[in-house]
Amino acid sequence: MEEGDVGAAMSARPAPVPRAQRAVTATWRLVVLLVVVAGIGMVLAHSLRVYFTQAEEIAAVKAEIAVEQDKIADLNDKLERWNDPAYVRSIARSRLGWVLPGEVGYRVLDADGKPLDGAAIELEAAEPPQLWWEKMWGSVQVADSPAEEEASEEPKASEPPRTIELTPDDEDD
Prior knowledge:
5 helices
């Protein structure tokens, strides 16, 4: 071995790597980098999915809590009304049918003899209001066909007599 060969072999400068070998090394580094980035992306994607799912659940639970708090407020309001003597009296009147001393209570009965509640009493359906020209035309039609009156002097059997006849015995009183 020559001294020059040993010196060249021991020199600090390595021999240049062929171009094809450098391209393969860069490709493997790029593949490893892409696998690492994809792994990080999958971990973050899963974490973000869990985050958004939990955020939706929290919003739904908060909405349920608000509804329940409204129900609680309504129930507390109803409970507070029972502390008012006027409310207790009105409930005793409507539900139990109680009256105060000196008052007269009435019950409306249906055809079966059962008492009706105030909400169960049905009013006859009123006709819808007519327009002014319909009312006017109706009055013209009524005026064109007057009702025929009976000129009988004797009262009908179903009607009571309208005049009272006095007998001589009644005049003495």
